[in-house]
Amino acid sequence: MDWDKLRIFHAVADAGSLTHAGDALHLSQSAVSRQVRALEESLNTTLFHRHARGLILTEQGELLFDATSSMVKRIDAATARIRDSEEEVFGELRVTTTFGFGALWLAPRLTKLYEKYPDLNIDLMLEERVLDLPMREADVAIRMKEPSQADLIRKRLMSVRMRLYASPEYLAERGAPETIEDIHRHRLICQNTRAAQVGAGLQLVQELLTHDIQSTLTVNNYFGVLQAVISNLGIGVLPDYIIEDFPSVVRVLPDIESVEVPVFLAYPEELRQSKRIAAFRDFVQEEIIAHRKSLRALEGS
């Protein structure tokens, strides 16, 4: 099978348009169309349904696209390993983590990584869905539980607990709750129980809601919860790593917290020798050590 035709087919299937695929490949629309037609003739099948709004893969086209997608991911992995044979750290590194950890803890610290490796390009993917590292949906992941996928190198970074926080202004106006029973007189700000979140956070929220809370604000990520807390709207359920960068918020009901949430860094076995992975891993570990020292200083003050 002609590899060049497969490459063009993959670009068309990915773009859903001959024109957009041609732009990406620097080929004319007619040249792309000829290559796709020739591939269909060689396979004696139709790969696309053609209509006014673009192209849709047929069942046979879906099968071939699955195969070419796997090929592209493996080629990307091989290219990454070849580039990582160089001494310098450069190129793209795709990092995935949860929205809360990525937005509130990781992203503000990336300045130090770029200062050390200015030619590194990071694609930071923030989502609760666990991406498939062996299939190269991402290069490295930081997750709030130990990854279950095979063929991964994993390292436990730290532990997180969900706790209750409020702004001093809110507490000055409404008073600080002294017992868990007092929580019903306050507005609780938390993730919706139907939203994707760590199990420990969900359990804590469910427990708090049993106290007949009169007013709630639910947000689908911790960044939104934090912004509401800072804006004096109520008492928020937030991960404890936010306290270092947002010391203006105050912990309330210090006896109330979730169980421990482990934080793991993971990457595919095949990227063991990657200099980009090593640079990112070392950077995160150094920041975790500094974070722990800062937390101990805050707790002791």
Structure description:
The protein has 301 residues and is of the alpha/beta class. 43% of the residues lie in helices and 22% in strands. The protein has helices at 3-15, 18-25, 29-43, 59-83, 99-106, 110-116, 168-174, 199-209, 222-230, 275-300, and strands spanning 48-51, 54-57, 91-97, 120-126, 140-143, 152-160, 162-166, 187-191, 215-219, 235-239, 250-251, 261-268. It is elongated and about 75 Å long.
Element layout with pairings:
Layout lengths: L2 H13 L2 H8 L3 H15 L4 E4 L2 E4 L1 H25 L7 E7 L1 H8 L3 H7 L3 E7 L13 E4 L8 E9 L1 E5 L1 H7 L12 E5 L7 H11 L5 E5 L2 H9 L4 E5 L10 E2 L9 E8 L6 H26 L1
Parallel strand pairs: 3-4, 3-5, 8-9, 8-10
Antiparallel strand pairs: 1-2, 5-12, 6-12, 7-10, 7-11
Defining key terms:
single chain; five-stranded mixed beta sheet; alpha/beta; 301 residues
Could you provide a short overview of the structure?
By secondary structure, this protein is an alpha/beta fold. It has helices at residues 3-15, 18-25, 29-43, 59-83, 99-106, 110-116, 168-174, 199-209, 222-230, 275-300; strands at 48-51, 54-57, 91-97, 120-126, 140-143, 152-160, 162-166, 187-191, 215-219, 235-239, 250-251, 261-268. The strands form three sheets. It has a five-stranded mixed sheet with strand order 4-3-5-12-6, covered by helices on one side. Strands 9-8-10-7-11 form a five-stranded mixed sheet.
Uncertain spans: none
User: Spatial order of the strands in the main sheet?
Assistant: 4-3-5-12-6
As a percent range, the share of helical residues equals 40-55%
Total count of strands: 12
Q: What number is the mean pLDDT?
A: 89
**SSE arrangement, N to C:** HHHEEHEHHEEEEHEHEHEEEH
The rough form would be described as elongated
Structural class by helix and strand composition: alpha/beta
Taken as a percent bin, the fraction of beta residues is 15-25%
First and last CA, distance:
69 Å
Characterize the main sheet.
Answer: 5 strands, mixed
Task: Give Rg in angstroms.
Answer: 25 Å
Q: What is the count of DSSP helices, taking H or I runs of 4+ residues? A: 10
